Structure formats: C-alpha cells, structure tokens
C-alpha cells in the first residue's frame, strides 16, 4: 500500500486495485484515446506488413539474388526468436516502471524512437548479417512499444468496454496490414524512402499519442528490488492456480496453429490444390485478401460492440472459432476458386470476431486483476500467437512432405486444431 491518492498527493491509502480503477477513461477522453490508439496500431501493423512482405524481400534479393530465399528465411528465423522472447519481458519491465509519466508511456516513446532509428539504418545495410542486426534491433524496440500499447486496453478501459476497444484496435491492425503492403509495393523501388516513411510515421504517431493521452502518474508502491531468478520465475503461471488463464492460452495457441497453417501456404494451395498458374494464383490471393479484409473489419467492429452490449465474451469467442473452422471446410468440399472465395469471406467474419472478442476476454482472465502484472501476463498470452507463427509452417511442411503434398490432409488437420481450440474457452469460469 501507498499513502497517496490517485493523483499522487499524500493522504488516502491507495491499493493497486484502486489505482487501476482511477486509470479508466470516460466520455470524450475515452474516444480520443481509442481512436488515437487505433491509429498507432494501424501504422505499426502497416510497418510490419510493408517491411516483412515487401521491403525486406526486395532488399535481400538485390543483395544476393541467387540465395534470396535462404537469406530471407535466416532473417525471419532470428527475428522470430527475439520477437517471441521480448514481448512478455518488455511487458514485465513496463509493469515495474515508475515515472511521473506513467508506466507505459516511456516504453511507447523510447521504443518507437529506437525502432525508427534501427529501421532507417536497416535500409542502409548491404549485407544480410547487418540487415539482420538492425532489423532485430527494430523488432525488439517496436515489440517493446507494442507490448506497452497492448496493455493500455486493460489499463485504461473498464472491463465492460473492452470488447468495443478490442474491435477498434483489431480493425486498425487489419487495415494496417492491407495498407502497409500496398504502400510498400508502390515504394519498393525506393527502399530508403519506404523504410524511412514507415519509421517516421510510427514514431510521430506514438509521440502524438502520448502527448494527447497523458498517462496518470504512477502512484503504486515501488516494486521489490530486481532479482533475476524471481523475475524469470514470474513467467511461469501455474495452470492449477490460474486455470482460466491456461484455458485462454491453450485455446488461442491451438486456433492459431490451424489458422496459420493455411494462411502460410496459400500461394501453394492455389497452385497445387486448386490448379492455378503462378500468375493467376497471385491475382487470386489479392482478391481473397480484399474479401477477407472487408469481412474482417465489419466483423471486428460489430462483434466488439455486441460483446459489450451483451456483457458476454465466451459465447462469441466460441461461435467465432466454429465459424473459422467451418470456413476451412469450404475448400475441402469445393476445391475450386469458388470454394476459396467462400473461405475468404467466412474466415474474415470468424477471425474478425475472434480477434476482437478474444482480446477482450484475455484482459479479464489475468492472474492479477489489479493491474500490477498486466504487461507481463498479456505478453505471455501474446506468445500464444507468436509461437504458432513459428511452429505452424514447420508442422505444415512436415505434414505435406509426409503425405505427398496432400492439401486435403492439411485442411483436415487445420480444421481439427481450430475446432479443438474453440472448446477450450468453455471451461473458463471468471468470464461469462
């Protein structure tokens, strides 16, 4: 306990729970915070998509065209390891931060600035090791910033409003992925300009966000002296003591294992399973992505609002997961372009709802509801997405190799993962 009130003045005793309640925004401030935070995520995910899908592949190809695939795989592999480790660790350090500007704001500002510098330097590199070094630096910085920004959903929005908040942010992320890929494609011949544009945009957005949404001074007691052993032990959250957290993690992990397997191999599915030429397959991917984008944005917004209005998360997460599983059956039953179009629309509806409502649900199953470890705990739940992004392509490649490129088996396995994951939400007791 601390002998200060929520404004930092001496007087009333404040607990962590009291401080958490004092952080929630209301009225017009809530909408300013939500729209500006959505803008930050829009630009950040535009950066991720533009760099990963367009700029890095083009830069590596220009350096070593004969071994471009191996070079790109090396950069992605190293980056994935750091990305997975950094997110929960940065969240934990932001939980321990005590400044007059709050716990999250310093991480958002410093992370965005360091990330911007590293990203601009990445554009100047002419060897794969140096590209890897600076892109990993940018990844660490931007992931640290994102970890703090993710936590703001739980920090600043009351539980009853987190569905709407998650819906907005999910739509912003999805829009950013689409727009970032398009912008990077248009600027692919001007790599320095493209890298710099993304970097500066994110840095400016983060600085503006912190300026117009000042975080209350942290009046929580100072954390215990840092102990590395205790710090590392804190990342283990016992499933027996916190079963709801474990079920949420397991469900998210399992669903993403199925979802990512199909997304990763979409080009090869269209060529080898549907029978399209490489040119037609690439054109079809653009069409499928557009359909999914509009369905997903609509679903993310509407599901988030509906979840808050009903005051329920579990039924919507379960239904969204089932819809995702049903979407995967379309190409299995109808292995044609029409089947893929149905898949694109239905997966957009299901994934949009899942992404927005599941994000809100995660904020309500944390072991410490008083906000003392929100950054760390949400960071751990984020690894339930990051790890499948690494494992799922490996598992899918092994499966296709074992079955002689039998994509029906891949679809059946993905369906099994998604349907299984949908049932993991049902045992959760602390959330309706």
Automatic annotation (TrEMBL):
The reply to whether Transmembrane helix figures as a keyword in the UniProt entry is yes
Pfam entry (one): MFS_1
Q: How does it sit in the membrane?
A: Multi-pass membrane protein
Compartment(s) of residence: Membrane
Domain Major facilitator superfamily (MFS) profile per the UniProt entry, residue ranges: 34-432
Q: Which SUPFAM superfamilies match?
A: MFS general substrate transporter
Molecular function terms in GO for this entry? Answer: transmembrane transporter activity
Where the protein is mainly located, per its record? Answer: membrane
Q: Which residues cross the membrane?
A: 31-57, 69-93, 105-125, 165-187, 193-212, 245-268, 288-309, 316-334, 340-366, 378-398, 410-428
**InterPro entries to which the protein is assigned, alphabetical:** MFS, MFS_dom, MFS_trans_sf, Tet-R_TetA/multi-R_MdtG-like
- Any idea what this protein is called? Major facilitator superfamily MFS_1
